[in-house]
Amino acid sequence: MSAATTAPRPGSGTTRWAPYLFISPFFVLFTLFMLVPIGAGVYLSLTDWAGLGSPEYIGSGNYTRLFQDPSFGASLGNTAIYTVFALAVVLPASLLIAQALNARGLKLRDLFRLTYFMPVVLSPIIIALVFGLIFDGEYGLLNAVLEALFGFGGVSWLTDPFWARVVVVVLVLWRWTGYLTIFFLAGMQSIPGELYEAAEVDGAGPARRFFAITLPQLKPVTAFIAVTMLVNTAQIFEEPFLLTQGGPGESTLSVSMFIYRAAFQRQELGYAAAAGVVMFIIVFALGRLSSSALGVGRTR
Amino acid sequence: MNLDRRQLLRLGGAAGLGAALTACTSAGDGPAIASGPVDLKLWTHDPGYADYFTAAPADPALVGGSAWTYTVDVTSIAPADIVSRLVNQAVANRPLPNLAGLVIDQYPRVMRADIAQSLFVDLTDLTEPLGDRLLKTQPYTVDGKVYAIESDNSVSVMFYRADLFAELGIPEDIATWEELLEIGADVAAATGRAIGMVADGDNGSIVNGFTQMLLQRGGNLYDEDGGLAVLSDESIEVLRLMAEGVRTGALLSIADPYGGAAAAALKGSKLIATVMPNWYKVYGLEANAPDQSGLWRARTIPAFAGGGHIASTMGGTAFAVLKDQAETDAAVDFLQRTYLTSEGQLARYGAGAYLPTLVDLYDTPEFQDITDPYLGDQRIFEVYGAGAKDMPDFYQAAGASLLRDSLGGPLLRAINGRADPEEALREGLRAYERQAPA
Question: Residue B415: which of B109, B142, B196 has the closest Cα?
């Protein structure tokens, strides 16, 4: 039997379907795990459903209720605070730390890297426990230190609405700065050394080199980190959930926590789905806008 | 083999249908097991219940004479996940357990949309004959029917440091809260010690602490029919008292009554008394201050001058039987034997110090003779018994979680003296009404 007789003829059934078969896994998985859940979520958001029995179609009732719900407004406001803080403080802080770690002749560089990266690998439960001990109003370490140094230490860190928000953003800062530092550091180490040498020859000082070389060269990395951080912080859940349970009152409640609460504490799955759809739209829009503004994925 | 598009679609469709049918096959269907060996599946969060239920089938005092011979297979699941997984499994037509332990603050989730009626066996036929003997059926009652049976009476009493009370000249038999707080204010001013605590952390802890005192005063969050009852003279009075206690330092504000701060307050003898349920002795006092064994005592709670009870209740876990399964009848029999008989209640206390829910048992010698070394060998059932006989009813409704989140912030402001108690309650109720589904 010759090879010519066993090879499928062009246009036969096998060759016609082969390309579709090869690309089908992506489409099957994308449909099953992305499109179907999104479609189901959108449908559920138009129903009243407690999880059991048939969902009852109520049209836009959940959305109307959602936009009149003060808790949802509070959760949107809190999430906005966390997101703005993450972009305005965490991002620059991680860039500066990366710059410091990238300095020539720095001793114990690996120890610093490990230290900054540690919060990311620690269990959130442990983090919440330790932060609870540090920021406890009555027996917390921070109040004890403040008392010893300045003579006042009665700050209700976790039980005052303002300070509770501050503690959550401090936790975000502590937890994510080191992680982002690693990205910036990797970006810095890929900047060609000749650029700095040339700038030095031209008489550029450290600040000039940072703004004229480091920052422009890091633009793709910065854009990627900014978009990732934006999208992640808009869905923040663990930090407020473990530290304050969204309290006191609803002062640290995030949108993700609002959804969790509606679904798994109140058994209002249709309502939770509506909040999920709104969050999806907001996050998607913010992600697209920021990607577009920062040129993520655009070739230089 | 050459496949055209139609054949490919047929093949895919047949494979998908096969997989879907296989996935939809539910275990547990089939004819009821009327006698003989039966393997019961149980979900609970508490290792104490797991130990009790797995040991029970070997105890002839509990299962002797039953038509079934039991084995119990326990799956440990977090409290909130038990309800979620029960609902998920039921929707997906996947295997359900035969018995499920439902923590009291999760139970309102199944009070919505007929979930309890759809999933659980109506146990009213077991509880009704016991009448007033059986305590704490109200929180698990939906439309007049009981769908779960409480494991632990969770009667709240006052635990106090007898040595420090004597040292500071605090009488052990103070009659009222008002007197206690007056003395507590003097003690706080002189020594920095507190005679009680209030939670000021998450909404659950804040509202639970308030509810415990409210029940004692004779108020409630909901009435018997599930209507809101939280705005009452009793609620305002309780909030005023809590605020006054915090202001004077008699009551210590602690974010988490079970966390590190509470442990530090106990170990440092800053907190020298606290009103908490019986289980707090094990999980709060003994766990955090084992070195203070013998120094603590328990008594009923000082009454409010305006009336109410000498005890309260907080927390609990009830067991429900899943309906329409081959093992359902056996599970009901097993639950009755282990939970609603004198032998079962005594065995349960022995296994995990779970207090009886049959109120007359507190007076029997088996319980009356029990002494507690941590409480200075006190005959503890003299206290628990007095408390159980005057324990207030506690009602829940489907919106309990929403109510908790709506009240948490305003209650905290009132407790900290930053809001008028009545206005705080009204604010919480306004938030509740704005968010409650129509």
Answer: B196
Q: Is B36 helix (H, G, I), strand (E, B) or coil?
A: strand
Q: Is A265 on the interface with B (CB under 8 A)?
A: yes
**CB–CB of B202 and A244 under 8 A?**
yes
A12 and chain B in contact, CB less than 8 A: yes
Q: For residue B437, what is the DSSP state?
A: -
CA distance B213 to B270: 21
A112-155: per-residue pLDDT in tens?
888 888 888 888 888 888 888 899 888 889 999 999 998 887 88
B9-61 pLDDT, tens digit per residue, is 566 555 554 554 444 444 456 789 999 999 999 999 999 999 999 999 999 99
Per the structure, the complete domain to which residue B215 belongs is given by 155-312+392-435
One domain for residues B119 and B176: no
Question: How close are the terminal C-alpha atoms of chain A, in Å?
Answer: 54
A246 touching B (Cβ < 8 Å): yes
**Cβ-based contacts of B4 with chain A (< 8 Å):** 13
Two structure tokens written together for B271? 């907190």
Q: What is the distance between the terminal CA atoms of chain B, rounded to a whole angstrom?
A: 60
CA torsion, ordered A95, A100, A102, A103, to nearest 10 deg: 150
What pLDDT score was predicted for residue A152? 81
Contacts of A14 in chain B (CB under 8 A): 2-3
Whether B426 and B294 share a structural domain: yes
- B116 and B79 in one domain? yes
A26: in domain: no
Is the pTM higher than 0.80? The answer reads yes
pLDDT in tens, B333-387: 999 999 999 999 999 999 989 999 999 999 999 999 999 999 999 999 999 999 9
Across the interface, of A50, A265, A271, the residue whose CB is closest to B401 is A265
